[in-house]
Recover the amino acids of this structure.
């Protein structure tokens, strides 16, 4: 039993630290990146200027990531006319793995991915994750129209937690 308590305490400290590391960037511009989406199109954070957006770091092997993706997709679709965009950043999987998962789940989402044949692609994505201070999956970054990081959420967003974040960060009245 003492081992379980120690493990729970260690996980609590780790989650608090991860949240603190990501929170240190709130109020600052999101670190710049230049990656490719699943169609090979180059994407930078400058491409996102002018709209508010959520950047969600995910992986197909991550159960909380898989659980929240349909929720994020629904919120983004329902709030698109309000100016909300959703961009995914896959953590360390190749394009074929990420796309196969999204297609199988019926999620027509844009994701930044590692090229199938390039170790350099893995280096670029890993560098981006380090600069974002992504320490856990999933992590969602809430970004303003000018590229400023407004808030982060480490862990699975539940419907109520997402609705609260969308209201407090962007002023959206969204019902899950």
């Amino acid at each position: 039993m003492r081992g379980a308590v120690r493990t729970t305490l260690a996980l609590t400290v780790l989650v608090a630290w991860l949240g603190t590391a990501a929170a240190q960037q709130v109020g600052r511009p999101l670190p710049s990146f230049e990656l490719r989406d699943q169609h090979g199109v180059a994407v930078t954070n400058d491409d996102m200027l002018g709209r508010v957006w959520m950047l969600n770091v995910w992986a197909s092997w991550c159960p909380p990531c898989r659980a929240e993706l349909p929720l994020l997709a629904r919120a983004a679709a329902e709030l698109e006319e309000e100016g909300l965009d959703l961009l995914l950043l896959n953590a360390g999987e190749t394009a074929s793995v990420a796309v196969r998962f999204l297609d199988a789940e019926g999620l027509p989402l844009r994701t930044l991915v590692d090229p199938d044949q390039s170790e350099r692609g893995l280096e670029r994505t890993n560098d981006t994750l380090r600069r974002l201070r992504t320490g856990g999956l999933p992590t969602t970054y809430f970004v303003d129209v000018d590229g400023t990081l407004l808030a982060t959420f480490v862990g699975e967003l539940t419907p109520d937690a997402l609705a609260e974040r969308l209201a407090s960060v962007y002023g959206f009245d969204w019902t899950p």
